[in-house]
Each structure stands twice: as C-alpha cells, then as structure tokens.
Amino acid sequence: MINQSIFRAYDIRGIYPGELNEEIAYKIGRAFSVYLKENENKNVEQVIVGYDARVSSPILKRAFTEGLMDEGIDVLGAGLTTVDMIYFASGFFHLPAAMITASHNGKEFNGFKLMKSDVGSIVIDDVKNIIDKAENSGAEKKGTLVEKDITGEYIKHVLSFINTDAIRPMRVAIDASSGAVGPVLKIILEKLPMEYTAMNFSPNGEFPYHEPDPTREKNITDLKNKISAGHYHFGCAFDGDGDRIIFVDEKGEFVSSSIIGALFVKYFLKKNPLSKIVYSVIAGKIVSDTISIYNGEAVRERVGHTFISERLKKIRGILGIETSGHYFFNKNFYADSGIITFLIMLDILSSEKKSLSVLVGEFSKYVSIPEMNFRIEQSEEVIKKVAQNFEGYDLDWLDGLSVRTPDFWLNLRPSNTESILLRLNIEAKSELILNRVKNNLLSIIRPFVK
Predict the structure, then answer these.
(1) Which of the residues are catalytic?
(2) What values do phi and psi take at 233, rounded to 5?
(3) In the structure, what pLDDT confidence band is assigned to residue 137 with cuts at 50, 70 and 90?
(4) 20 to 30 A Cα–Cα from 28, which one of 69, 93, 382, 431?
(5) How many Å apart are CA 65 and CA 111, to the nearest integer?
(6) 389 pLDDT band (50/70/90 cuts)?
(7) Sign of CA dihedral 271, 273, 279, 283
C-alpha cells in the first residue's frame, strides 16, 4: 500500500525507504509512462531522467527507469544533474523528463519532479490515480537506456543570458550545499573572470556540513562568516538540486528574495519595456513598486513553483519571482534556475558598478517578519476570524487571505505541501506598525495552535 502523503501539489516526495522505495519508484515509472501516452500531444518514445546527489537517488533512478522501459519508453539517462539542467533538457530536446530529487529537504527524503515535453506541468494526482492501471499495462517491446551528457549544451544555454566579456573581475564565496550544482558551476566559473571560494562543491548525499536548504539561517552561517572575514563582492548558496539560490552581500548580510526580485525587475524591464512580470502573493511590495516605476505589467499569482511557471508561460511574461529563492525566465523555457540567477547577478553588479549592499539599500523601503508557520487543524476557521478582524480593509482570496492597506499588507494561507500548516507573512512601512499588526494577529491565531 502506497502512502498517499507522498503525492504533493507539485511533486512526489517522501522518506526513503519507509515512504518511498524501489518498488514504489518502479510503479511511478510505469504510471508516468501511461500518463504521458494519454496526455502528450505526440507519440512518446523517450524520457530524459536525471538525479541529484542523495545516496538513494541512483537506487530510485534504476527502479524508476525500469518502470519506464517496461512500458516501452526509451530513457536518456542524464546522470547526476541539477534540476534546472533537466528543465533545460526537456525544453531543448522537446521531451518529457523526470528528476529524482527532494530539493532542499534533508538526506532522509527523496522524490520525483515529473514534466511533459517543453517543461510542461503535470497534475501529480493524475499520475497517482493510474498507478493501479499501469500495473496491468505493458508494451510489446521493452525500452532501452542510453546515457546522455547534457552538460555542454546546458552551459552554452545559461551563458547566453549574459555578455561574458562585460563581466568584471569579482571575488565571490559560493556554498553548493554538497548538492548537484558544484561540478557544473565549477566549469562555468572557469569561463568567467572570477576568483571564488568553493564551499561544499563536492556532491555528498549525506550533506555532512548542513542541510541543503539555504533559506534557513543555520545553513548559511558558514557562508556569512566567510564573507565577513574576507573581502568578497558577495556570497550565494544553492539548494540540493540547484534551482534555488539565496544571496549575501559583501558585509555578510542576507538579502531578501523580494529585494533580489526588485533588482531583477529593474534589470529586465530596462531591456524589455512594458513586459509582464509574475510574482507570488507573498513577494514584498518593493517588487510591484519597481514594476510600476519601470513601466512593466505586474501579475500576482499563488505561491508555488507550478503556479508561477504556468502563469508566466500563459501570459508570455519575461520574469517570475517566488520568494523562496526561485526565479523564472522566459528564455529558460519559463523555468527557474539558480545558475542563471547567479549569472544575472554578476551582470547586474558589473553594469551598475555599485556594491550589492548599496543596491540593496536603494530598495530597502519596507520591514517584514520572517514567514511564521503554525500547526493548526481548523485553518479555515482561523482565516475567517482574521478576515472578520480586518473587515473594511482591502481583502482578496487569491491564495489564502491577503489584507492590503497603505501602511501594511499580510497574507495568511494554508501550506501547499503540509496540510496542517498555516503560513503568515506581514510587511509594513515601519517596525511600529509591523509589531502592532503581528501582535494583533498572534492574539487571534495562537489559541488554535496545536
């Protein structure tokens, strides 16, 4: 019996081997094959498969590809890759693809990111619902496995986002979090005028130095200390599969993803006036302010990788921003990429000829709380009470409850990945207003916390 909790909004994820093992991986491979045959607009013959640095990833990859091949699908094995290399391969070769990864989660987790050709999103529940059907399916001829190195094509692609001759010499510290990004990033850095300190560049699925989640303060402590002790232009850290990136300025201070997003809005709209930018409902107000200043079209969207990517694709926007460190680009098949984000930051710093902290200061107009999470079973009741408390204000329900006023905004929404979590974000013009709103909300929410 498969634990149904592994099937999430955007991907499949669980603890190995208790929740996700070789038998389940094989069944997912067969179900994915059947799904593709029923939902692709063309005859599916090949699927690209890559995997991250986790100890269990090669094991699950073998079982998953056996499932694909037993359904008559040929597999192009990309080997150890970043997930954005798989996004690239899906778009570049116009093929469906799969990545065995648990992204930023701890070493005990693993999972699958599945996509149709050209990085097309799929409904995970549709794959789940045909697992039993796939068990009774089969093909006249078994598929084959061919290894394919996509590194060369991928590197040409990401470097096309910048003029490498315009990049000025810089000194950077980079934490690859013992994940998949280190080897390919090393090749890219050697093509640029960079002096860099490589932290945790060797893939190690045990993640011996810290978990591969750079959005958590404890996981970037070494990076911040490295920056503070040396003379660097900036620092950055990637997650386990390389699609997420965070930045630290030359003083060792963390830079919020909303401010990075605003920097990117300015960069892209100066090159592409009147273009559309997609951002999540919890992005800081500086993002929409900057879109307005530089004559872009702002498009709010629900929090979540699939929502941002699909909306960006649908409206043919140029940039998508999600505040967990994901940035989406139209010329990257509307997918996100940590390495492309890193390269664009190099281009911004080269052209602006200002330090990152100075650039950040120009966009630091608001104060906010770190996202708060509450374990609550009656989330709908809590959200309703908060809405009643702010009756008369500008409320919207795009993703949970958002309250917007001239002095502050807040968002309270259920988690997409953990059913009993309620997430709270608040931003305001001043610390005084921020604390007043926060204390008011906590007095409503805390009685419901488990």
Answers:
(1) 103
(2) -75, -35
(3) low
(4) 93
(5) 14
(6) very high
(7) positive
